[in-house]
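User: Please fill in residues for this 235-position structure.
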């Protein structure tokens, strides 16, 4: 069902792009650059595990193709190849135990980008929305405190199955979106700042009846800065 909904959303997005192409002012601009920033992640577990935000770095490469101007809106497709550190940090209030798990991902988002403002030599505000794919390339547990049978027995609802549990699904997919602002020069250098959110539609661990968790998906806040420069300019 989730895959069908995702396919429907992508089809609607492509239909909109096709409609724009029929009435918009054509562009064929291409820009590349780099991005970097910070992530704040939580994993939604069912049964619930109390957490604080888990922070980590993110950085990568950005590719943008601007295809048209529709009235005052600049329409573009943007893809990225990024590294991001996700994971979760537990809020353990029953003992001095501490626990977190780092999960390192390669992520590839595909965005429709809609921008208002100056095409070059000024300010733009923009919206990003689209699917994101990812693959977990490694993970590491960090434990602190006493970590005895007694402290484990005091966990809320007795939930301890996550400790040492192998990741079942390293491939991840979901939906990402964000808002940002960009300043560009007339020569085509672009500097952007943005915030975005990713909601995972896949689970990290197995979710069958025999598995300990029915849900275990990432939810990530990104704060990012980017630098791009125009390679091809058609206007």
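Assistant: Residues filled in for all 235 positions:
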């Amino acid at each position: 069902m989730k895959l069908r909904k995702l396919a429907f959303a992508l089809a609607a997005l492509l239909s909109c792009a096709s409609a724009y192409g029929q009435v918009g002012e054509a562009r064929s601009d291409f820009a590349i650059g780099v991005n970097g920033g910070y992530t704040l992640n939580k994993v939604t577990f069912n049964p619930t595990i109390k957490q604080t935000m888990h922070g980590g770095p993110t950085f990568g490469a950005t590719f943008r193709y601007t295809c048209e101007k529709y009235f005052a809106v600049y329409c573009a497709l943007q893809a990225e190849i990024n590294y991001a550190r996700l994971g979760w940090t537990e809020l353990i209030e029953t003992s001095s135990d501490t626990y977190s798990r780092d999960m390192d991902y390669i992520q590839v988002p595909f965005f429709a980008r809609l921008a208002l403002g100056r095409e070059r030599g000024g300010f733009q505000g923009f919206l990003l929305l689209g699917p994101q794919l990812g693959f977990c390339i490694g993970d590491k547990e960090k434990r602190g405190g006493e970590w005895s049978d007694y402290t484990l027995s005091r966990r809320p609802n007795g939930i301890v199955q996550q400790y040492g549990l192998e990741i079942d699904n390293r491939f991840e997919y979901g939906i990402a979106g964000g808002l940002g602002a960009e300043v560009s020069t007339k020569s085509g250098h672009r500097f952007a700042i943005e915030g975005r959110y990713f909601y995972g539609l896949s689970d990290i661990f197995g979710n069958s009846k025999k598995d300990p968790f029915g849900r275990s998906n990432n939810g990530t806040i990104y704060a990012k800065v980017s630098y791009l420069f125009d390679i091809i300019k058609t206007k």
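For context: The chain has one domain: 2-232.
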